Amino acid sequence: SVLVHSTGTGIRDSPRIERATGHQAFDAAAITAAPTLRFTPAMRNDTAVAAPIQVPIQFTLPDSLKRVEPE
After folding, report:
1. Distance CA 49, CA 67 (A)
2. Is the pTM of this model over 0.70?
3. How does strand 2-6 pair with strand 12-17?
4. Which residues fall within 8 angstroms of residue 46, CB to CB, at 6 or more apart?
């Protein structure tokens, strides 16, 4: 998962890997994807505030890339 900091305007800041996948390429892809995420700012007493957000990211191979085991 990736930990990002969402500002009071919903902008993401300082993404970092919170829980590594064990594959450096996947972790790098998750960090690269983090700036494209959009959030509604956290609210406290009707005021937008900054907050950390842990984002789980799951990678799935398309069927065309999955290995088929011989029968």
Report:
1. 46
2. no
3. antiparallel
4. none
